[in-house]
Design a protein that fits this description.
InterPro entries: Cyclin, Cyclin-like_dom, Cyclin-like_sf, Cyclin_N, Cyclins_cyclin-box. The chain is built from five helices and no strands. By secondary structure, it is mostly helical. It is globular.
């Protein structure tokens, strides 16, 4: 979080609380949540993110972790819906490529 200029620990805490709710709503495995947090931490360590994209990073981390840990992961459209259409399918897929790159 030291590299971040636009987000702080409180915002990250709010994101974590929301991701826990998403995790429970989708009935995902505990390992999925832990991996999600690790993916987000690694991304934030190396990339500066503005507050408007913090939730995008979070939901993309959850999607990536779901693909790795779940037998039947939620689809991209489910993540678009859970964000209340704040991000498009294309934005989530672009962030996925960025987080994997």
């Amino acid at each position: 979080m030291q590299r971040q200029t636009d987000i702080n620990e409180r915002m990250r805490s709010i994101l974590n609380d929301w991701l826990i709710e998403v995790h429970l709503k989708f009935k995902l495995r505990p390992e999925t949540l832990f991996l999600c947090f690790q993916l987000i931490d690694r991304f934030l360590q190396d990339n500066v993110v503005n507050r408007q994209r913090l939730q995008l990073v979070g939901v993309t981390g959850m999607m990536l972790a779901s693909k790795y840990e779940e037998i039947y992961p939620p689809e991209v459209r489910d993540f678009v819906y859970i964000c209340d259409n704040a991000y498009t399918r294309e934005q989530i897929l672009e962030m996925e490529q960025l987080m994997l790159g």
